[in-house]
Amino acid sequence: MKRKLKNENGQSMVEFALIVPLLLLIIVGIIEFGFMFSGYLTLTNASREAVRTISLGRSDSAAILRANDTIVNLDKDQMLVKIDPSDAAREQGDSVTVTITYDYTFLTPFMEAIFGGDFQIEVSTTMRVE
């Protein structure tokens, strides 16, 4: 009878079943964070390109077009570009700021449940108009 009580054949299976969901959540979180960080870097680059276009004396519409051309792996419909000051109020030597706001949509549904829907990424870059 004592021999049957010490049999632990199923113990590792139970421990594995308890740990796997936590490990999967961590792995999916790391992958999701990687995609989000990639989007952040893409938006930062687009912001730099747009403000550089403006600092060289081009118009706001040219800067927005340049920002859209720079973004390749994100949905351009979820991106909002704000330029301050606008064409009319900007003079040589002034600082101009381009702010890009993007609503990042999570790839996995349970990450949406944890964070409550979309996550907003906002980047901004400032340069002096030449």
Automatic annotation (TrEMBL):
Taxonomy, superkingdom: Bacteria
* Keywords from the UniProt entry: Membrane, Transmembrane, Transmembrane helix
Under the heading Pfam families, the entry gives: TadE
Start and end residues of each TadE-like domain: 10-52
Show the stretches that span the lipid bilayer: 12-37
Membrane as UniProt keyword = yes
Cross-referenced InterPro entries, in alphabetical order? Answer: TadE-like_dom
What is the name of the protein in this document? TadE/TadG family type IV pilus assembly protein
- Origin organism is Fusibacter bizertensis
Q: Mind giving the lineage of the organism this protein is from?
A: Bacteria, Bacillati, Bacillota, Clostridia, Eubacteriales
